[in-house]
Amino acid sequence: MTHQEARALLESMTKSDSLLRHARTVELVMRAYAAKLGEDEEQWGITGLLHDADYEAYPDQHPSVIVSQLRERGEEEIAHAISAHYTKWGVPYNALLDKALLACDEVTGFVVACAQVRPTRLQGLEAKSVLKKLGQKSFAASVDREEVRLGAEMFGVDLKEHIGFIIQVLQQHQQELQLQPVEEQA
């Protein structure tokens, strides 16, 4: 599957700007980890891009719709990783790709939430600030803190370093993601 095909598939089911941005941020982080670990950047990026593709259109069936469509296209590794991106679904974590998606999904969304409440957005955001916000249950209350912890643990990364890596990746794309400081936004 090409990136263009994956993007078209995502956009066929997802219209919300915030969900499209979430898909893109997870894609960017997954690509960066693939590059760092010597894995397939295209595969990892597409996995991140499509992990919530059916969430808006089929919330009660998520992620089975996108998983089925990927399996029909012969994309079993991507489909399996997406089927496993929440530990409570009980799907085994067979590959590093599976663990990476689990580790990157919730926490990337949380980092974006932290950036959005700051006038300087991603600029100057530090991992220790994000960790402090994780301790505030009322902030971004829908983020499952246990998933964040388990994801980092399963992926074998220190949570603070992991958050720092995510911040660095997103900072490189802050204009595209519309996460540049308020005074710089046009």
UniProtKB/TrEMBL annotation:
InterPro entries: HD_domain (IPR006674). Gene3D superfamilies: Hypothetical protein af1432. The keyword Acetylation does not apply. Keywords: Hydrolase. It comes from the Bacteria. Pfam families: HD. Signal peptide: none annotated. One of its GO terms (molecular function) is hydrolase activity. This is Metal-dependent phosphohydrolase. Residues 20-90 form the HD domain.
